[in-house]
Amino acid sequence: MKNQRQTIRKIIGALNDRDQDGGFWLPNIQRPFVWGEDQICKLFDSILREYPISTLLVWRTTSKIRRRRFIDNWKESLRLSDFYVVEDDKRKNLVLDGQQRLQSLFIGLRGSFEGRELYFDILSGELAAPDDIKYRFAFLGGADAKFPWVNFKKLVDSNAKMREIEDDMASRAGRVLSPSEQDKLRDHIDLVRRTFTSEEAITYQELDSIDNPSLYREDDVVEVFIRANSGGTRLGKSDLLFSLLSATWELADEEMEILLESLNAHGFAFDRDFVLKTCLVLLGEGARYEVSKFRKPGIRDQIESKWDDISEAIRDVLDWVRAKTFIQCDKALPSYLALMPLVYVRFHHPNEWKTAKGVDTYLLRCLLAGAFGGQPDNLLDALVARFSELNKFDADEAFQIIRNQNRSLELTQDRLWQTGYGSKAIHLLLNIWYRDFNHTPAYEDNLPQVDHIFPQKLLKQQKVPSIETGRLAMKYRESDRNQLANCMLLSREENGAGGKWDTPPSIWFADKDDVYLEKHLIPKNRDLWELDRFEGFIEARKLLLVDHFRKLKVLPAATT
Q1: How far apart are CA 370 and CA 263, in angstroms?
Q2: What is the pTM of this model?
Q3: SS3 113
Q4: 3-class SS at 342?
Q5: Beta strand residue intervals within 359-462, DSSP E
Q6: What pLDDT, on a 0 to 100 scale, did the predictor assign at position 226?
Q7: Cis amide leading into 341 (omega within 30)
Q8: FRET label pair with 129: which of 41, 179, 258, 283, CA 20 to 30 Å apart?
Q9: In the structure, what pLDDT confidence band is assigned to residue 39 with cuts at 50, 70 and 90?
Q10: Is 37 exposed, middle or buried (0-12, 13-18, 19+ CB in 10 A)?
Q11: Cα dihedral angle (234, 238, 243, 245), rounded to 10 degrees?
């Protein structure tokens, strides 16, 4: 293993460029780029502050390894498969560790982020604590980039003389710069040139399989990749496990991307973790998520050979959920794990799945009661084992197993009142309650919004003397403000600018008819809409909510 050093400009110039010693590329075992704008800007700030940015790990090889290009113009809608490179046996350098940093540098110095290029505030640089921003960077559109913001890649790539660059930037200011600003301008131009073009600021360790072909085999490199990335938080376990799968199955990336894209087309958030864990469950390996299982002989081959059937089973269960329940989007599905036993039945017993009874009741009770919370691997294994014995799904058997593991299935009134603003189950409740809402609009920002009937801002302003100190303290705690009885569902238009926003209920409900009030289960006593009657409103609305959820069979009927 050799240590190499390069200037930032030189190594960025070698990304995707075969003419520079084969170029630098990303192996397909690498996960997608996940950094956001803030992280990219902080990286550039760190470099100008001459902080170390850690050592990269690169594999030099001629093996026919599936790889992809670095992305220059990054957009959320991009597909990794669009960047795949045709396999060849020519020399190449594959980045095993350091993707996020190199990709961020490439976007900033060669491309854009969602159509906006990286700009640098040339007059920033005030002293700051290590965790603060000293040199300000931002991705801006051309029309928004006014002095002192300068296009950073143009500054780094410029071959003009220092004086010429200074004069050009000073002319853009539209005013005479002060002597201190002129000094700062000069110092920062020099700093950028030094850190990005002169100093060898990038260090990488090189695994050389060209000069030493027997030293690093492909299996060795996958193991090095896993060990290099498993010590920190850069990669999740699914990324590490998927690296094992994609190392032997060349279409793994593309097939996973296609499956997740189809599953999430209607507002859900399925991920690799769910799919890979489901694969283990379907193949009889148990729900516990362990790297050793993916190293077992035959497991990866089975996933590849049965992928079409696995994908079809997951899709079929989701289609059933969307068609037969009120779970219409990610926010209404507090735990995706509740679907795994259903996928197992659909995969192994497709005919029995078609006639399964009580699936909707199973999902509703499990999700509202939080039956799959905590560490549910033993529960998943027990459910799968029982359905395997029965060769079918049985809701009553499922409920018995859940109870035997001391997990709750009952949605009591006490638990109902724990479901408030921000809780995992509130959107499921609202999906059941508000059946006429469009919970899956084409544009995500048009999703219906949970609103506080008595606005948080107004409730926070209510003060009472503290018993301990006698000083004024907030009357209503966060749990009071966020409770279910103070929540309702509004369309984005209703709750946006010019809508309800911070409007008190006494004004918002004043011109609403009985149909609107009944839809939102609002007490019709107008006196209760006043701010000083908040507690009375909550108690009256709780009665309406309990009655409504009993009619929907979400809560058990009242005992006589």
Answers
A1: 23
A2: 0.60
A3: strand
A4: helix
A5: 449-452
A6: 62
A7: no
A8: 179
A9: very high
A10: middle
A11: 180
Cα–Cα distance, 248 to 228 (Å, whole number): 19
pLDDT higher at 227 or 401: 401
Q: Which residues pair with 202 in a beta bridge?
A: 6
Find out whether 291 and 244 touch, Cβ atoms under 8 Å.
yes
Where in 385-439 does DSSP place strands (E)? none
Token representation of residue 490: 């509004």
Q: Which neighbouring-strand residues pair with 2?
A: 206
Beta strands in 167-296 (DSSP E): 202-208
Among candidate residues 335, 492, 304, 361, the one with its CA nearest the CA of residue 424: 335
246/232 Cα distance (integer angstroms): 21
Q: 410-417: long-range contacts at Cβ-Cβ below 8 A with a sequence spacing of 24 or more?
A: 410/369, 410/556, 411/365, 411/368, 411/369, 411/554, 411/555, 412/555, 413/546, 413/555, 415/368, 415/369, 416/484, 416/545, 416/546, 416/549, 416/555, 417/483, 417/484, 417/485, 417/542
**β partners of residue 118:** 139
φ and ψ at residue 114, rounded to 5 degrees: 55, 40
Q: Which single residue is written with the structure tokens 């499921």?
A: 428
- Residue 507 burial class via C-beta count within 10 angstroms: exposed 0-12, middle 13-18, buried 19 and up: exposed
Q: How confident is the model at residue 328 (pLDDT cuts 50, 70, 90)?
A: confident
Helices (H), 290-330: 291-295, 299-305, 307-324
State CA 187 to chain mean position distance. Answer: 39
Alpha carbon separation from 19 to 13, 15, 16, 92 (Å, rounded): 10, 10, 9, 10
Residue with tokens 């793994």: 252
Mean pLDDT of 5-28: 93
**Alpha carbons 69 and 106: distance in angstroms, whole number:** 11
Cα→Cα distances 39→42, 82, 99, 153, 155, Å: 5, 24, 13, 18, 21
